[in-house]
Amino acid sequence: MKCLLALLIICSVSIPCLAQPATTTPEQTLQQQSAQAKSLYEKHSYAEAAAILEKLAADPQITALPDWANALGHLCDYQALAGRPAQALATLQQAIKLANDLGFHVSVDDVRGDADLISLHNNPQFQGLLSRMSAEDALLKKQAALWQDDPAIATPYKPVLTEDEKVAGLSKFWSEARFNFPFFARVPDVDWDRMYMDYLPQVRAAQTTADYYRVMMRFAA
Fold it and tell me: How many CA atoms lie within 13 A of 62 on its CB side?
């Protein structure tokens, strides 16, 4: 009887545990399905690879994942290789938009250099997309150049800076905060312009670059 009771207790504990289904997170599902699609792609089963990712596109939990943008990039490759240029182009545009929304820039060189999309190269819509992307890339480069330090101010390190270099460094730091720090209203006791004027003689008096850095760290704090 004791043996029977022990067996019943073991069964009552173990059976519910065995009955619990294994849960898979959306991240795991995307990773597993993407791996399966890639395996089919490597076997040149492009339509089947595309079908796997297209099925995932109906799941809002998966399409909300940051990695979905990367999956869309693969999907457009699979669709192009499967001879479905219209779907491939639509997916490509969706992938680029999602990547941009996430803060990642897809350059025209990235798209033009994708060998899997070679079947789209004569497509007028694809060429139009490349033209728009080229214009956007040129604008971004122009904007980046406006914020890039000129070699005249981005001088290399040396143990003792000139007075002009020390003043230029302080002025650069002051101007970046003056025009880009949005929370000066929350520190009304800080007169940033007055601090700049107060620190000018301090940076000039710094004997070495190490001394200058210490002054600048106090200014930053």
Answer: 21
In sequence order, the 6+-apart residues with CB closer than 8 A to the CB of 177 are 192
Q: What Å distances lie between residue 133 and 27, 48, 105, 109, 146, CA to CA?
A: 30, 30, 10, 9, 20
- In tens, the pLDDT along 65-111 reads 999 999 999 999 999 999 999 999 999 999 999 998 988 889 999 99
In DSSP notation, 110-175 reads HHHT-GGGGGGTT-HHHHHHHHHHHHHHHHHHHHHHHHSPPTTTSPPP-SS--HHHHHHHHHHHHH
CA atoms of 157 and 159, how far apart (whole Å): 7
Task: Tell me how far apart the alpha carbons of residues 30 and 71 are, in angstroms, rounded to a whole number.
Answer: 8
Q: Tens digit of pLDDT for each residue in 146-163?
A: 777 778 788 889 999 999
Query: By C-alpha distance, which of 199, 208, 217 is closest to 157?
Result: 208
